[in-house]
Amino acid sequence: MLKEGRESTNIEDRRGMSGRGMAIGGGGCLTFIIAIVAVFMGIDPSSLLNQIPQDQVQVNQNQPVQSNPQEDAQKKFMGIVLATTEDAWRATFQRSGVKYQEPKLVLFRGQTPTACGKGSAGMGPFYCPGDQKLYLDFGFFDELRREFKADGDFAQAYVVAHEVGHHVQNLLGTMDKVQRLQ
After folding, report:
1. Which three-class secondary structure state does DSSP give residue 123?
2. Does one domain contain both 26 and 68?
3. What is the pTM of this model?
4. What's 72's domain CATH number?
């Protein structure tokens, strides 16, 4: 595993969150007001809160991250791999006279809110063009080892580079063209 090199600062670690650290709208104030009004009107507040668009969901980053040494080493490795892709794509875009917009890598366990709806471990790693973030549940690497016998650094680096490739497709408009043709 790569242990040295520049680590990307574009990593959002949500591993210690289980959905309880989420706030909707402006820091949870809107959620509280909607719930109070709904209760006074005899309406189930959850039915109203579920109608709020997903892109308004924000994650409270002040929650402590529950991790272990193996995941911390994987996070560092992911940071180095992501930094390598940032450097390569920045240089490639620069040669074309375009500024590269770096994606964020979101690490999570179980499920997490995204601009594309709720992301879950069962989906595997994915890219969301709505927020230009790569989403990765560390449980996926366990599945790669168990189910597909794809263990090691290369498999993990490939996953990150593959999702960054979707980000580049989005930046170049290729993703939209393919979706229109479908």
Report:
1. helix
2. no
3. 0.72
4. 3.30.2010
* Nearest CA-CA partner of 2 in 76, 107, 71: 76
Does the residue 46 lie in any domain? yes
Cβ-defined contacts of 44-49 (< 8 Å, 24+): 49/24
Query: What is the helix (H) or strand (E) element at residue 137, kind and residue range?
Result: strand 133-137
> Do residues 26 and 94 share a domain?
no
Tell me whether residue 127 is in a domain: yes
Q: Please give the DSSP secondary-structure letter assigned to residue 129.
A: T
Residue 106: closest CA among 121, 93, 91 = 121
134-178 tens-digit pLDDT? 999 988 888 888 888 787 889 899 999 999 999 999 999 998 887
Q: Is residue 40 part of a domain?
A: yes
Which residue has tokens 């104030």? 29
